[in-house]
Amino acid sequence: MTAGVRELGMAGVTYRDAAVADAAALSVIGARTFVATFGHLYSAANLATFLQNHTPERWAEALAGDASVRLAEAGGAAVGYARIGPLTFDVDAERGGRPGLQLYQLYVDPEYHGTGVAAALLYWAAARARARGAADLWLSVFVHNPRARRFYARAGFEEVKPYTFWVGDHPDDDILCRLALDADRPAGNGDAPRRAAER
Ligand SMILES: CC(C)(COP(=O)(O)OP(=O)(O)OC[C@H]1O[C@@H](n2cnc3c(N)ncnc32)[C@H](O)[C@@H]1OP(=O)(O)O)[C@@H](O)C(=O)NCCC(=O)NCCS
Fold it and tell me: How many angstroms does the Cα of residue 145 sit away from the middle of ligand 1?
């Protein structure tokens, strides 16, 4: 597998693994992209509660712990990221003696949507999850996020079952999705190079 080839994508965008020193940058882009995508759905109090997940301190803990995070950058600034880690969903995820891992977030700034940046990050997430020994990569997606659902379906995720995603005390209707990380096919967006070249 040549992840670097998959990440050539859009001119000027580079990719690297995040380290604890990136906690502040991830705090900013994590909060910014969540608010840009979903902020209008919640009360100020619920949003503030949820954004506690994106403080620099929480990011530093995650980066020092069992998270794997990939950063996409342009002009020295973060424009997207993907984070994987242990499964938090209540699913029977073990398959063939291998655990499942979770894609916690895949967020790209709006001006980079449709450019192949998200596909490159997803390709990395699937490859890294497989390298960490996972049989499957799981995620939850909001039912009223058709762009993300289409994106994940195109990458090979199957929608498995309903899931409630809490933002403060606000329940969102999500769907759990699973991508089988079989060794005999590309991980995730196998068409990432084509798309990156097109756009
Ligand atoms: C979700 C996300 C990562 C996808 O990356 P992207 O670069 O926008 O995805 P792409 O453009 O490669 O693919 C999106 C697909 O949805 C389609 N699409 C776009 N808007 C759509 C809509 N309103 N309804 C249905 N499909 C839509 C596009 O046509 C494309 O499908 P196609 O390749 O078959 O033409 C990115 O949009 C993002 O970061 N969004 C904000 C954060 C977010 O929602 N993250 C996921 C949380 S689970």
Answer: 8
Query: Which of 141, 151, 174 is the best mutation target for the ligand 1 pocket, counting ligand atoms within 8 Å of the beta carbon and taking the most?
Result: 151
Residue type, position 30, single letter: G
Q: What is the CATH number of the domain that holds 9?
A: 3.40.630.30
Cα(154) to ligand 1 centroid in Å equals 10
pLDDT at 171 over 80: yes
pLDDT digits over 144-167, tens only?
Answer: 999 999 999 999 999 999 999 999
- Domain count along the chain: 1
pTM of this prediction? 0.90
Range of the structural domain that residue 124 is part of: 3-198
The burial of 44, by beta-carbon neighbours within 10 Å (0-12 exposed, 13-18 middle, 19 or more buried), is given as exposed
Structure confidence at residue 182 as a pLDDT band (50, 70, 90): confident
List the residue whose alpha carbon is closest to atom 8 of ligand 1. Answer: 113
List Cβ neighbours of 17 (8 Å cut-off, separation of 6 or more). 68, 69, 70, 71
